[in-house]
Amino acid sequence: MFRHTRRALLAFAATVAVLAVPSVAQADVLNDWNVIAQNQALTLRPTAHGQTRGIAMVQGAVYDAVNALRPRYEPYLLDLAALHARPFGSRKAAIATAAHHVLVEIVAPAQVAGLDSAYAATMARIPNGRVKNEGVRVGAAAAAAMLAARDDDGFMAPFTFVIGSDAGDWRPLTPTALDPDAWVGNLVPFLIESPSQFRSAGPNALTSAAYAEEFAEVKEIGALNSSTRTADQTTAAIFWQAPPAALWNRLARDLSAEHDISVAKEARLLAMINLAAADGAIACWNEKYYWNFWRPRAAIQEADTDGNPATVADPTWEPLFHPSTPTTPSLITPPFPDHPSGHGCVSGAVLHTFRAFFGTNEVAFDVHSGRFPGQPRHFGRFTRALDEIIDARVWGGIHFRTADVQGAVIGKKVARYMRRHYFQRVD
Q1: Residues 102, 214: one domain?
Q2: Residue 321 lies in a domain
Q3: Quick one: pLDDT at residue 4?
Q4: Which of 75, 135, 365, 417 is the most buried (most CB within 10 A)?
């Protein structure tokens, strides 16, 4: 009987020891695989929203794996009763397995070896045994659930463009410069009920005073050689032209470290911002091809056709986002319709998610952009960053203000819907 009691005590002590591992060690694995996912996602496709979908899949699976071991919130996809995860399972093994198993299925074959190597390195630091095995089992189940849910979701599905020739109709800069992300508007959402759930009011009527006012604004301040745009406005416009996954995942990692957020909560935060970003993009691209509205470049060059006496055409007008602007990679007018702004939709969803997660708008933070390494922009509130993004797209000459404002509203609605229907605390 003593042997049985001693064995039980040793097992209990081992479990306590696993649970008592400093959270920083688990956070290191969580952050390491978030960085790996971010970097791998950036090479998934030559499109921004192939990246958005990929990292959303990874972080959704990682959240489910972490949460399954010690459930504190509602699962995203996993059936916890059927899985019957054991709480002693290794979170580190679960995180790495969930991330790795999703990534190897969605990256190019040439990238798999690197992922396998990173996975082996992570797993080598975790002692073998039932604790590790349980973490692997749970992580694999989370990855399988995510891959099954996103199978045949419309990724890279064929898309038929409607290219108009009338005033107000969107048209590409050249016949072959077509949007590589058009499929996003018909993608099955991660959270919301349908891509068209949050239809906006649409762009201003061409003959309206509101249209003429926004036309004049972007024509003046968004011009390639604008005399009224300040140096800081020029910097901001270029700064924000960066992959959303890189901007917001780094911010989530930075804020989690600064505020000493637990692994379970950080996994939830990473899932929330990335799933919200994905659905912000889906809702936005569905809107873009619903309204099919022209960009400022076409609108200003062809203003003599819009029927508005308050607009004056300039056939030579070019925006700040032009190949001659000195930055790498080069800037161009994006090859998809103006309304609404993709950055507004995605960043609106993310920043309102951050606000809800922290329970306040007043959080100080720095945002880092690959356009200006080592030169972050500082904000004292989440909405201040969103306000600058709205302005920056006008300063860059690529959006009418209404497209930016309504895009941010769509993002806010996505974040609000998620807050009401997903990731709820459980007893």
Answers
A1: no
A2: yes
A3: 36
A4: 135
